[in-house]
Design a protein that fits this description.
The protein has 124 residues and is mainly beta. It is 0% helix and 56% strand. It has no helices and eleven strands. Strands 2, 4, 5, 6, 9, 10 and 11 form a seven-stranded mixed sheet that branches. A four-stranded antiparallel sheet has the order 1-3-8-7, with no helix packed on it. Strand 4 (31-38) and strand 5 form a beta hairpin.
């Protein structure tokens, strides 16, 4: 499974961004996709995940619930992370990752494949 994250950038607090994670590879359809982030000097943390390329159950970190939405478009092999009402504390490198659906959704160690990351900077 190969993952390509994109869509990061600089935005003012209160603004929005949409991140994309494009997947490829022979077996990517059997994996679920999640988003993680890592801020400078901090550990990587879970953001959101969706269990199926055709929709399915979603999980969110409490810190982003109600502001971020994860979705998938099966025909495009792409998972999106719509981020609204952004705050300076959302500043981080955002990574998409793939895990087998049977693995715990919020745990980084569950994810076998990782994209290269895309930087999101929220100014106050």
């Amino acid at each position: 499974v190969q993952l390509q994250a994109s869509g990061g950038g600089l935005v003012q607090a209160g603004g929005s961004l949409r991140l994309s994670c494009a997947a490829s590879g022979r077996t990517f359809g059997s994996y679920a996709i999640g988003w993680f982030r890592q801020a400078p000097g901090k550990e990587r943390e879970f953001v959101a995940t969706i269990t199926s390329w055709s929709g399915g159950i979603t999980y969110y970190a409490d810190s982003v619930k109600g502001r971020f939405t994860i979705s998938s478009v099966n025909a495009k092999n792409t998972v999106y992370l719509q981020m609204n009402s952004l705050k300076p504390e959302d500043t981080a490198v955002y990574y998409c990752a793939a895990r087998r659906r049977t693995e715990p959704p919020r745990v980084g160690a569950s994810y076998d494949y990782w994209g290269q990351g895309t930087l999101v900077t929220v100014s106050s």
